[in-house]
Amino acid sequence: MEIEVRPATVFEDVAALVGPKRPDANVCWCLSYRIGAKANQQLRGPMRGDRVRELVGMDPPPGVLAYHGDEVVGWAAVHPRADTSFATNKRIPHVDDLDVWSVWCFRVRPGHRKQGIVHHLLGRVS
């Protein structure tokens, strides 16, 4: 299976992997560690998708996507640690100030699981 991993710069593709079936649903959208806890709790329904749309337009984008042909089949949330809540979370021990990236979420579409998609995603971010 030929898998191509690209930066998550197409909102519709990100939404296909991490967005809700109903636009008013309060699902994660992989924002939990990307934005602060207070902002995360304040975002409700469609505002969560709007925030992800903003993040997709930023450099670097909020993650990477795996494609099989033109079909998006996988997602990994990845970003510089300093720009995530990992950097300031009191429950996560602060061990160093290295300029590293954090990966905190993987999603693979049903029908494409157990085919090594996560390995491709992680290989792109490492």
Structure notes:
It is a single chain. Helix content is 27%, strand content 22%. The longest helix is centred in the middle third of the chain and has 11 residues, at 46-56. The mean pLDDT is 90. With 126 residues, the protein is of the alpha+beta class. It has helices at 11-18, 37-42, 46-56, 117-125; strands at residues 4-7, 63-68, 71-80, 101-108. A hairpin with a 2-residue loop joins strand 2 and strand 3 (71-80).
Structural class label: alpha+beta
Low-confidence stretches: none
| End-to-end separation | 21 Å
Strand-residue proportion: 15-25%
SSE order:
EHHHEEEH
Helix percentage range: 25-40%
Rg (CA only): 15 Å
Strand order of the largest sheet: 1-2-3-4
How is this structure best summarized?
The chain is of the alpha+beta class and 126 residues long. Helix content is 27%, strand content 22%.
Describe how the helices and strands are arranged:
Blueprint: E1 4-7, H1 11-18, H2 37-42, H3 46-56, E2 63-68, E3 71-80, E4 101-108, H4 117-125
Antiparallel strand pairs: 1-2, 2-3, 3-4
For this entry, give a set of tags.
126 residues; alpha+beta; 4 helices; 27% helix
